[in-house]
Design goal:
9 helices, elongated, about 40% helix, single chain, alpha+beta, about 25% strand
């Protein structure tokens, strides 16, 4: 957790002390508590705002909002980064937070996928359900992680029709109908193959969308042309040409898979909120 602390905000602590003896509790409630209530008008006037952003680096977010937010008197600003995701937290009084909130929303906009505790996959399931749309998934390098995360969400069965783990080239050809010539000419990790995988998943599952991943998790399998960490993510939909994004996540295998899943989910979310 990285935090930018405004000196005008001080830490508060709560101490639990033993209460008065049972026989003195009525007196305590009638006299002492009434006096305390007259002194303490309510809880400290501090509120909290929370934002989750996917596939945007912490340094990029800080550059966009950091100095401007901390220039507002009475604001504490903090960041918490995980693979493919950053939490932005602000604490302050209501008036200051309203001003800060306007800045965050204006500068980060659609990058914010929730202002609550929802995961990115929970947001996707909710959006697909609201729109009465469905999803088919084709995974190579992520090995089923996308489907696993989606099916961890209650109600996923309404929107996820099928998931295909096509790790071998033969599986891409046999299960998804990818043309073998595309693989021979471009390699399995390529834009044409990613596009064919997404379209094959959508066709096989008869879903609204087809989402596909194919990449090199490493450390083996890389070449001069395609380094470990290279991944193609494709999204097939009924109303436009299939979108394919090339990303580069040079990291160990588990982190590579997490980053790829986040990027794939964010690609679909952006499509759903248009």
């Amino acid at each position: 957790m990285k935090a930018s602390i405004n000196p005008q905000i001080r830490s508060t602590h709560t101490f639990l002390l033993p209460g008065p003896p049972r026989e003195l509790q009525p007196m305590f409630r009638n006299s002492v508590m009434s006096t305390l209530r007259s002194i303490v008008k309510g809880p400290p006037p501090f509120e909290r705002r929370f934002y989750k952003i996917a596939v945007t680096g912490e340094s990029v977010i800080e550059e966009k909002i950091g100095k401007t937010i901390l220039a507002i008197p009475g604001i504490e600003l903090g960041y918490c980064a995980r693979p493919g995701e950053v939490d932005v937290r602000m604490i302050g009084d209501h008036k200051a937070l309203e001003q800060a909130d306007g800045i965050v929303r204006a500068r980060l906009g659609d990058s914010i996928f929730t202002t609550g505790e929802e995961t990115l996959e929970e947001v996707l399931v909710k959006l697909l359900t609201q729109k009465k749309q469905t999803l088919g998934i084709a995974e190579s390098c992520t090995g089923g992680l996308l489907a696993n995360r989606i099916t961890n969400v209650a109600g996923a069965s309404v929107v996820l029709l099928a998931g295909y783990i096509c790790y071998a080239n033969e599986a891409k050809i046999d299960i998804l109908g990818v043309d073998s010539k595309l693989i021979e000419e471009n390699g399995a990790v390529s834009e044409p193959v990613a596009r064919a995988m997404a379209e094959g998943a959508r066709s096989r599952a008869r879903s609204t969308y087809g989402l596909a991943t194919t990449g090199i998790a490493g450390p083996t399998g890389a070449s001069k042309e395609k380094s470990a960490g290279t991944v193609y993510i494709a999204l097939a939909s009924p109303d436009e040409n299939t979108i394919v994004k090339k990303r580069f996540f040079p990291s160990e295998r588990e982190t590579f898979k997490q980053l790829t899943a986040q990027a794939a989910f964010e690609l679909l979310r952006r499509k759903l909120i248009r």
